[in-house]
Write a structure and sequence with these properties.
The chain is 54% helix and 9% strand. The chain has 567 residues and is α/β, with parallel strands linked by helices. It has 2 domains: 227 residues, Up-down Bundle (Heme Oxygenase, Chain A); 296 residues, Rossmann fold. It contains 22 helices and 10 strands. Strand 3, helix 17 and strand 4 form a beta-alpha-beta unit. This is Thiaminase-2/PQQC domain-containing protein. It comes from Gossypium darwinii.
């Protein structure tokens, strides 16, 4: 939708305001919109003008619907201040409609009047107008509303259906403005981006959100749930709108769009701890050990593996953790060159051998301490099944393994001491039992751990060796596209070796080591915009290459989902 040309005063909503909470809750929808091929191409300046024209031609339909919805909402509001605020918003839309003709002429959109409304636009405008007319589940028909307060609900519901559009476009405006090259004066959509990133539009959006907050103050929990559903539905309709835009040009995303399993092989690698999980698996194993350990005054049955008491275990774990943290920081510091270097994969590989030696010594201390003795296999399995994974991780991996057209290979490379914990987390209940697990294993005797660890993957060098072995084991009849997702220094070699390395989280040690060895960390969305600019007109060039020294940073699994699949 086009922007009202003037702001009516910026009001910053409180952090716990309704609109702010909903925007945060439905972040996934904003990410999917941002990563749509249309928005990426528009940001890069490579979007074909006809595609842009057809999108903008829908603008007048949005504006008319919003003006009408504001009029209905104003009639329902029983507060003079609310009526005035809605009236100003409506006048802004009407003024934008008057200016729309000049904008149309500038872009050569003479056909706009003949351009019919498309299905995605129609869905949103009908949704907004139906809400503003009181056609909301659980609400009486407009003519049967007994009191002014009941009519006020319709005003709140209407703002609930319209606010997401405003906030999404304000968000997109700022995100796209951030990737504009200040020296690029001929970007064809710079003015469009400037409209939505402007202080005027940002301020109007904040005012709309503030109005929604005020209209919702006296509503019941059930009524607030209705607004939440309306807000979410509006966000989903916006996604539909962006993905409904027809693009004839080649695009870098979604990655799976042009994937041909007959010619290409998609190989996805991921770390486990703090990449897939919220808590490190060593902490989970420690908790199992401490909780199930005997008390200091409790006699242990003969014939069973002798265990430390729970208090001894807690103290020993604490000492091991503190020693690990201190020595890890010292090891990282000792690896860093005195001056930052240009990227060289082999130089970094050599430096990380020092970290590999440290990890092996730390694991030896764990085994010698006996803290992993006596863990019951069923306890570990239950902990794995209840393990909380990062938001979006399960959905992404499920979509990958269930899509038969992809025929993708998924491998987890993990330092985790217990592969059974990972297998339980990725069990058939989550539909991820086909994921290949490469990790260490606890040694068991009659379903009770002996305290020994069968070491398979305990260092950065082990990880890259496993990565290379998997790749080498593939047949030569297909071209591999490798993607590695990780969060720590231990993942660095694999991240850089993969065609696409994606960093999740904010590990300071990873950044420190990477920076000193010439690794570039590029936020994923700006990186895709740059790739889109470089994409050949025929789409045949190979744009993803390993060992380039470039890693992409993602704020979460939703970004990765959008990269692979779009919406």
């Amino acid at each position: 939708m086009a922007i009202p040309p003037k702001s009516v005063g910026a009001v910053i909503p409180t952090e716990d305001g309704l609109a702010s909470r909903f925007w945060i809750k439905f972040r996934r929808e904003s990410v999917l919109s941002l990563y749509s091929p249309f928005v990426v191409c528009l940001a890069s300046g490579s979007l074909e003008i006809d595609t842009f024209r057809h999108c903008i031609a829908q603008d007048v339909h949005f504006l008319k619907a919003f003006a009408q919805a504001y009029e209905l909402a104003e009639d329902c509001a029983d507060d003079d201040d609310a009526k005035l605020a809605i009236s100003k918003l409506r006048k802004g839309v009407l003024e934008a409609l008057k200016l729309h003709n000049s904008f149309v002429q500038e872009w050569g959109l003479d056909f706009v009047k003949e351009c019919p409304v498309n299905s995605a636009t129609l869905k949103y405008t009908e949704f907004v107008l139906a809400t503003a007319s009181g056609k909301v589940e659980g609400l009486k028909a407009p003519g049967k509303l007994d009191t002014p307060f009941e009519k006020t609900k319709i005003a709140a519901y209407t703002l609930g259906a319209m606010t997401p559009c405003m906030r999404l476009y304000a968000f997109l405006g700022k995100e796209l403005e951030a990737v504009l090259d200040p020296n690029e004066h001929d970007h064809p959509y710079k003015k469009w981006i400037g409209n939505y990133s402007s202080e005027g539009f940002q301020a109007t959006t904040l005012q709309t959100e503030d109005l929604l907050d005020k209209l919702s103050v006296s509503l019941t929990g059930e009524e607030l749930n209705i607004i939440e559903k309306l807000y979410h539905q509006a966000m989903k309709l916006e996604i539909e709108f962006f993905y409904a835009q027809t693009l004839t040009q080649p695009t870098v995303i979604p990655l799976t769009k042009e994937h041909d399993p007959a010619r290409n092989r998609l190989m996805i690698f991921s770390d486990f701890d703090l990449t897939c999980t919220v808590v490190d698996s060593s902490a989970i194993l420690a908790e199992i050990a401490i909780v199930t350990a005997p008390k200091s005054d409790q006699n242990q049955p003969e014939g069973q593996i002798t265990r430390m008491s729970s208090s001894e275990l807690r103290n020993t774990w604490g000492e091991l953790s503190q020693q690990y943290t201190e020595e890890y920081e010292q090891c990282i510091e000792s690896m860093l060159p005195s001056d930052k270097e240009e990227f060289n994969y082999e130089t970094l590989h050599t430096a990380l051998e020092k970290l590999s030696d440290f990890e092996k010594r730390a694991n030896s201390r764990v085994i010698e301490s006996g803290v992993l003795k006596g863990l019951n296999f069923e306890d570990i399995k239950r902990a794995g099944e209840r393990l909380i994974l990062q938001d979006g991780c399960t959905n992404f991996l499920q979509k990958i393994v269930k899509d038969e057209n992809l025929n993708a290979n998924v491998h987890l490379l993990s330092y985790c001491w217990c592969g059974d914990l990972i297998r339980a987390a990725f069990s058939s209940a989550r539909g991820l039992d086909v994921v290949n697990i490469h990790a260490n294993e606890l040694s068991f005797q009659e379903s009770v751990s002996t305290g020994e660890i069968i070491m398979e993957v305990q260092s950065p060098i082990d990880k890259i060796e496993a990565f290379n072995k998997i790749i080498q084991g593939c047949s030569d009849d297909k071209r591999n596209l490798t993607v590695y997702i990780g969060d720590s220094v231990g993942d660095l070699l694999c991240l850089l070796k993969a065609d696409i390395g994606i960093v999740i989280g904010s590990s300071s040690s990873l950044r420190t080591v990477g920076d000193h060895y010439g690794v570039s960390f590029v936020p994923l969305f700006p990186g895709l915009v740059k790739k889109q600019k470089e994409y050949g007109a025929d789409g045949s060039c190979c744009i993803w290459k390993g060992q380039s020294g470039i890693l992409y940073t993602a704020s979460g699994w939703d970004d990765i989902h959008a990269l692979f699949f779009g919406h």
